[in-house]
Amino acid sequence: xxxxxxxxxxxxxxxxxxxxxxxxxxxxxxxxxxxxxxxxxxxxxxxxxxxxxxxxxxxxxxxxxxxxxxxxxxxxxxxxxxxxxxxxxxxxxxxxxxxxxxxxxxxxxxxxxxxxxxxxxxxxxxxxxxxxxxxxxxxxxxxxxxxxxxxxxxxxxxxxxxxxxxxxxxxxxxxxxxxxxxxxxxxxxxxxxxxxxxxxxxxxxxxxxxxxxxxxxxxxxxxxxxxxxxxxxxxxxxxxxxxxxxxxxxxxxxxxxxxxxxxxxxxxxxxxxxxxxxxxxxxxxxxxxxxxxxxxxxxxxxxxxxxxxxxxxxxxxxxxxxxxxxxxxxxxxxxxxxxxxxxxxxxxxxxxxxxxxxxxxxxxxxxxxxxxxxxxxxxxxxxxxxxxxxxxxxxxxxxxxxxxxxxxxxxxxxxxxxxxxxxxxxxxxxxxxxxxxxxxxxxxxxx
Amino acid sequence: xxxxxxxxxxxxxxxxxxxxxxxxxxxxxxxxxxxxxxxxxxxxxxxxxxxxxxxxxxxxxxxxxxxxxxxxxxxxxxxxxxxxxxxxxxxxxxxxxxxxxxxxxxxxxxxxxxxxxxxxxxxxxxxxxxxxxxxxxxxxxxxxxxxxxxxxxxxxxxxxxxxxxxxxxxxxxxxxxxxxxxxxxxxxxxxxxxxxxxxxxxxxxxxxxxxxxxxxxxxxxxxxxxxxxxxxxxxxxxxxxxxxxxxxxxxxxxxxxxxxxxxxxxxxxxxxxxxxxxxxxxxxxxxxxxxxxxxxxxxxxxxx
Lengths: 447, 304
What we know:
Shape of chain B: globular
Largest sheet of chain B: none
Strand content of chain B: under 5%
Strand order of the largest sheet of chain A: 1-32-31-30
Protein name (chain A): Serine/threonine-protein phosphatase 2A 55 kDa regulatory subunit B
Helix content of chain A: under 10%
Oligomer: heterodimer
Keywords (chain A): Repeat, WD repeat
GO molecular function, one term (chain A): protein phosphatase regulator activity
Distance between the termini of chain A: 14 Å
Largest interface: A-B, 35 and 32 residues
Number of domains of chain A: 1
CATH architecture of chain A: 7 Propeller
Helix content of chain B: 55-70%
Family (chain A): Belongs to the phosphatase 2A regulatory subunit B family.
Subunit structure (chain A): PP2A consists of a common heterodimeric core enzyme, composed of a 36 kDa catalytic subunit (subunit C) and a 65 kDa constant regulatory subunit (PR65 or subunit A), that associates with a variety of regulatory subunits.
Number of strands of chain B: 0
Radius of gyration of chain B: 18 Å
Distance between the termini of chain B: 39 Å
Number of helices of chain A: 2
Number of helices of chain B: 15
Strand content of chain A: 35-45%
């Protein structure tokens, strides 16, 4: 890919009520997850306030050949509310940690959304017809006076304005002691898993009162705790394989056929630490924040604080490729530790053909790496650069020395503007970038 | 040297983060607190390593002065920084003189001294001890390697050097729990025990004393000052919450010290065991009562 990226639509301030460019936002508006569905027609975002907004791609307009379908708001609903655990005196945040779409099996769409403790299955369906001509009630639904009914009629379906209905179909609760960080739908379309810091549970989509624990890394004595689970995902094709990443920078591939409890991994992917880079913060920056299978199922993409790595499932001792996302931060780890930025969990994404990987950075920058040509680009998601149809200009961070025009120096990076969540359309070159409370959608330029 | 300063700063920042995590919305984040505790451990290792290096250098000069001052320190235990008490305790000075004698004598006397001060006077004792000038109380610990250079018997040396000043266990069982308590990589916490309030004061006292007396080791005094490694990481964190002043971190580090020994490499880890054994015989210092009731770390984690 890496052709110049054209802005498909200007930033969709999905959660801000005021249209002005510099409207202030509340913390509840911060987008916390972004996910395309399996066809790419729908794009779901979750925010810290527990709301889910679904965008739908408009059908292409045939009159304008350059006009690709734009994404417009399809539905908005409140998925999770703040809760209070009275037993532990803990507040449970309503922030949506992850959204995962189920493969579509009928006219309705289903998605799973989760906060720290509870996973919910939502049904998103359209209604564009309604019955008219009831015998016993009138147009407004009031019961008719029977004496006025003189003849019988058969109600008919008449078209109506499209209405999108969202209803909760399942609530999977009370299965996690720790904070849920990942959910992943299995390729069998019947089960899914949810992972928290120490355990992974397997659910059936139709059963809410039971789940199976398949991974448990909680030590007998909690004082012996040395690592936690940070992300987990099912293999895209093999319903028995799953991978989970740890805070120590390791990946474990587990095969559910081996045992009911997959504590023993089938494969362990670990890169030996480089002793020359050792610092106080070595452990923090080696913690994997996201793991994604490639569409082919052959590779794994992981993100830790400074790098993105591509692993081959057949090679456990080291990654296939390592991409430096923002190595200029390596000398600033102490400051980043102080302002908590070092704990930011960046996500990563594959493109449809697994040839390009993408991940976010600071200053509203996001980076793409072409695995074949080894080229990479840094782009910015900002209002100024995102007028409709504008082409994004590659950015550069200079680390001192010669500074070209338009370069940004490391010291002037804005660490409050971080792109943690990105998503790539499953088949086309359309990307969704969440920058704090704004959602940007970019697409490849057509010539 | 700059590593030490940096390590110190990182430790105080880490403690602050752990404290703040307890009050933030959504409950304690296990992952983040685990990472913070790992940073804390690394920083502490560097800090101690640096400190030990510093002690080695000053050990030689300090030695003679320490011997001369030993008598003073014994007397001063009841009165902070006071040297007038010296003439009062001739008996003790004899004890001090005995320092040159076989180790067991000194050791037993030291132990007796400690026990006699068990209740409530420990803070003052520490102050007196520290202010006397013979103690090198950058609270962190003695360098075990430095101790052999002293003429002080090994027994006392071991106690002092291994004891990275924390309150002694109130009972032997708690002492043995030390290695477990040290493994406090988790980050949960329980409700604060109000008794903990005394801990920061102790730390403050120690720190002030430490600043005043930046001189040589006083190993016999160490015996009194040091307490066995029972304070779990959580204790120090809570102590830190009372005063976020980084100057208190040094004091905290000493309290930390033994409870963190389990997190250190194996050669360090061996020390707390011996220290714990010996400290169970030694007296109490400051917040022993409170600490006896606090096994908060493990409790907290288990509860979480």
